Amino acid sequence: MTSATPLPAETLSITEVAERTGLSPDTLRYYEKAGLISPVGRSTSGRRRYAAADMNWIDFLLRLRDTGMSIADMQRFAELRRGGAATTADRLAMLREHRVRLHRRIHGLQVSGRALDDKIDHYERLLEDT
Amino acid sequence: MTSATPLPAETLSITEVAERTGLSPDTLRYYEKAGLISPVGRSTSGRRRYAAADMNWIDFLLRLRDTGMSIADMQRFAELRRGGAATTADRLAMLREHRVRLHRRIHGLQVSGRALDDKIDHYERLLEDT
DNA sequence: GTTTGCGGTGGAGTGCACTCCAACTCCTAC
DNA sequence: GTAGGAGTTGGAGTGCACTCCACCGCAAAC
């Protein structure tokens, strides 16, 4: 008899979140302390319980991180987010700037990738000429 | 009367190399100390004089760095290079592995870039609905 | 009722890649 | 001859993003 789930609904423990995100529990606590993640719900015994909304936000944070955004900039973005709808335009501006930097970075990597290809070709030719 | 250039030929001072590469003089010395750059020629008064071959190597090092290779791996590559022709196959292997990692990284950035695009679209729609 | 295990906190420590500094040495120009 | 400027060395310091640690609390398992 699965009764209607009570209030806690579907929440995850810190180690479960760690497993799903690849972050360590220490890093999750560090991010929260740093204000990247707003204080997450607690169980009666004071343990963190991550809800779906927390997970979505963490996933997005990781996109920002993986595309090279610094902790300082993520803090700024998270703070804007806590400021609510009034900050939408500012957040959009941040994301657009970040996208520009990202595209520049991808382009730079592709250019360097071709230089790397050339170097590899060079070495392959050296090895062919036994 | 520009007489035939003597032995030093076309060499650059450390600040000139810094300007051309974007590295600081401190970083150039640090790289040399770390073995990334093999001891560069010196003037009679003990000052570094970078030759064309040094510049080519530094340019390539920067490609490796900019594509995410760690100092430790660049040290390994530089050491192989000092080992001469016998290490060609090893160096080729390193570069191929590095290229695989680079392509994975570029791909990951492109995927995250699309997620970023979606988020930007989302914010744009929020702002349109005045 | 105590061992086991997960989680909490504050704060110290780590690894990487630089970056800065003090003290000294050379030229070059005045 | 001395002041200025560029460069030398060894070693200390910095900023970032974690990562580790000691010590404590709670709850289920035995």
TrEMBL record, chains A, B:
Residues 11-80 form the HTH merR-type domain. InterPro entries: DNA-bd_dom_put_sf, MerR-type_HTH_dom, MerR_fam. GO terms for molecular function: DNA binding; DNA-binding transcription factor activity. It comes from the Bacteria. CDD domains: HTH_YyaN. It holds the Pfam family MerR_1. Keywords: DNA-binding. This is MerR family transcriptional regulator. It comes from Nonomuraea terrae.
